[in-house]
Design goal:
It is built from 10 helices and 16 strands. The chain is an alpha/beta fold. It starts with a helix and ends in a 6-residue tail after the last helix.
Length: about 425
């Protein structure tokens, strides 16, 4: 065990270098830029370790096109004899940098023990830690049984449909190919993430009748209808959701309730030009809602609550009509903490940090949803370096010491999942 942990320590500079290189590839999603460049970079680090690498394009998935192809990396190294397969999955994409940075978001700057840049925390620091964990394990136990896989996948930030979901439908996250999965998302190095809340996205459109703005009484304003819907949400549904609590260990504490977020709204005529907008009465208004729900809630009732309000308004409000369209739906996920991966990661964490791990659930979904729902593989957790609150923020960073700690935990957990060396 000590030899393995020391092997990780010796690779500290490699860990920093890989993380910085990954951050410098601006894999911004949307639109899904530079996936191939980042996948090839990761492959160049893995092939000298004996991995066979494949680049797979998820053709036909949302956003995939010749300019922005959804490229995924699958790397596999076979052991010397039969055994289980441990898979490390990390998403290559990052959200746009946005405003408010005091450092270059694409420089991978190393300062005071931290690597700064978009994606450093979420989750290129975790990918680098997984690669170094695997490298240290192969150095100390080259004749391991089974197989080790590492994947770098697309589009997690937009649902994972061009990444893990596409691969899962092709058997890349199912037995007998894979037995155990660790996703190095940034949940803090002393936490083992065993699941997440559910998600339901939908678009609501209210309809009206166009007329000139000088005679609005000849029309019917769809924006006013939408306003009535939003008011009813705020008055009736939002307080009910806030009162619901889950037994899942979701962090932070505020996320243990059901939530509703209004993502985007557009009403009236298109504004794809410069100058003043049309003076017409709005004949359409569209609202996108993001509903996060609890494992104790019935998924059918999540939609039902929204539709019930719309139906009530259609009965009570003259001229009210609507269209409700589901955009995406993900059920809550909760891995049994007695499964092999949660046990192995927790045990390794106790040894490396000398304290009890916290089992937590994420407030938002991540690619475990596809591994569980499509791949049918339940033995999966998220564990990696970084502080979740820093993800998607200006001056995002990951601490080098946390990457080293996470690499040690992942290396030790992999050792145990593969059965450990003889003697």
């Amino acid at each position: 065990m000590d030899e393995l942990l020391e092997a990780v320590e010796r690779r500290r500079e490699e860990l920093v270098a890989l993380c910085r290189e990954l951050v410098r590839v601006p894999t911004v999603n949307p639109p899904g830029a530079h996936y191939r460049d980042c996948a090839e970079l990761l492959g160049r680090w893995l092939r000298p370790l004996g991995f066979e690498t494949r680049l797979l394009r998820a053709e036909g998935t949302p956003g995939d096109c010749e300019r922005w192809p959804r490229i995924n990396l699958i790397a596999r190294r076979e052991g010397g004899r039969p055994g289980p397969c441990v898979h490390f999955n990390g998403h290559l994409d990052v959200v746009p940098a946005g405003e408010g940075w005091t450092v270059d978001p694409w420089a991978g700057e190393l300062r005071d023990g931290r690597i700064y840049g978009r994606g450093s925390c979420d989750m290129k620091g975790g990918i680098a830690a997984a690669v170094v964990a695997v490298a240290a394990l192969l150095e100390t136990w080259p004749d391991f049984p089974g197989a080790i896989e590492v994947s770098g996948t697309a589009d997690e930030e937009s649902g994972g449909f061009g990444g893990v979901a596409w691969l899962a439908r092709r058997g890349f996250f199912s037995r007998p190919r894979v037995d155990h999965v660790i996703i190095p998302e940034p949940l803090d190095v002393d936490r083992v993430c065993i699941g997440h809340r559910g998600l339901w996205w939908a678009e609501v459109e209210t309809r009206g009748r166009i007329a000139h703005g000088s005679m609005p009484f000849l029309g019917d304003c769809a924006i006013r209808h939408m306003g009535a819907f939003v008011e009813r949400l705020e008055r009736e549904l939002v307080p009910r959701l806030a009162a619901r609590r889950t037994a899942m260990p979701v962090v932070p504490e505020e996320a243990r309730a059901s939530t509703l977020n209004l993502i985007a709204v557009h009403g009236g005529q298109p504004e794809d030009h410069e100058g003043l907008p049309s003076s017409c009465v709005a004949d359409s208004c569209r609202l996108v809602i993001d509903r996060r729900y609890l494992i104790e809630e019935n998924p059918a009732e999540v939609e039902g609550e929204i539709r019930a309000i719309l139906e009530q308004l259609a009965r009570e409000r003259p001229g009210f009509s609507y269209r409700l369209k589901e955009l995406q739906a993900v059920r809550p996920v909760l891995t049994d903490r007695d499964q092999p991966v949660p046990r192995a990661v927790a045990s390794a964490l106790r040894e490396v940090l000398g304290r009890e791990p916290a089992f937590v659930c994420s407030p938002g979904t991540y690619d475990q949803k596809h591994i569980s729902r499509i791949g049918g593989l339940e033995d999966c957790v998220a564990y990696g370096p970084g502080i979740l609150d820093l993800a998607h923020q200006p001056d995002e960073f990951v601490a080098v010491k946390d990457m080293v700690t996470a690499a040690k935990v992942m290396a030790l957990a992999t050792l145990r999942l593969l059965g450990g060396p003889p003697g």
